[in-house]
Amino acid sequence: MSSASDVEIPLDVPKKAHDIYRKNFELITHGTGRLMLLAGDQRVEHLNDDFYGEGIHEDDADPEHLFRIAQQGRIGVYATQLGLIARYGRQYPDIPYLVKLNSKTNLVKTAQQDPMSNQWFTIDQIVRFREQSGLKIAAVGYTIYLGSEFEAEMLHQAAQVVIEAHQHGLLTVLWIYPRGNAVKEEKDPHLIAGAAAVAATLGSDFVKVNAPKKDGVSSADMLKEATTTAGKTKVVCAGGSSMDVPAFLKQLHEQIHIGGTSGNATGRNIHQKSLEEAVRMCNAISAITMDDASAEEAIRIYEGS
Question: Could you tell me the CATH number of the domain that includes residue 262?
Fold first, then answer.
């Protein structure tokens, strides 16, 4: 693991913003260079499917559930939309926030139209919000659907997001998902590596990708191509749909120690649980991500033993 003192500040961060950038990097990685991102942007992406229904704890229906988790659990940064931060942030000023700058619903399927997700807010608006709220707005995030017929517009917006965010000392996380009629296998390892390389060319600090699969099988070995080609851009894997906790924690450990990733971006595997269980899950994930705990040690943290 790297430390905050090892932070290499990109050249697009002006000297006046160096301290802010370094402070934000240390804040969201706990000085480890690895990121534990609590993903809470799905209220737009998946509407209410992820928050209400069979197998989902009733706590999750309330938008404040995720803020409570982020406050009580050990996380790196909580990613969500600005409107929710504006409504709940006063009660949760100690949470480090990532503002998701674009989102779209899943109602229009790829078969009907290639995906496009436009930017909602400018970086200047986010910076003004940071100043007037006094909250710990440490980062911004943006999704690109690589392979969509609209990818050129999203790539342009993402490039502007990265350079403008860095001007103000904000860190950037790019969600990059190959998706569209031109994409046959969204989780092909070679394609996932290509997505990570795109994030590197855009100068992002982190890139969030789906764990690669080949012939329906996922393996941490398949991540090596992506983490290598990403260079100085750090790769984190999406947590995906809810799964067995021990299997999830073992998978996370292997993604970091075999695949070479720099953390995780987890939503449903945390927030679909009760508050008490979700906090334990956060702490287990953070132990692997930021403390180099083994999967077995993390399972014991989750179990409360």
Answer: 3.20.20.70
The mean pLDDT value for 73-86 works out to 98
Is 23 catalytic? The answer is no
Q: How many structural domains are present in the chain?
A: 1
Span 270-283, pLDDT tens digits: 999 999 999 999 99
Among residues 97, 177, 234, 302, the one annotated as catalytic is 177
52 is known as an active-site residue: no
Of the residues 136, 208, 250, 273, which is catalytic? Answer: 208
Q: Are 41 and 80 in contact (CB under 8 A)?
A: yes
Question: Which residue reads 């700058």 in tokens?
Answer: 101
- Helix intervals (H) in the chain: 18-29, 42-45, 64-72, 82-88, 123-133, 151-167, 189-202, 224-229, 245-257, 268-271, 275-291, 295-303
Range of the domain at 208: 4-303
pTM of the shown model: 0.96
Single-letter amino acid code for the residue at 91: Q
Helix axis angle for 151-167 and 189-202, nearest 10°, is 50
Q: Taking Cα atoms as reference points, which of 131, 234, 165, 202 lies closest to residue 17?
A: 165
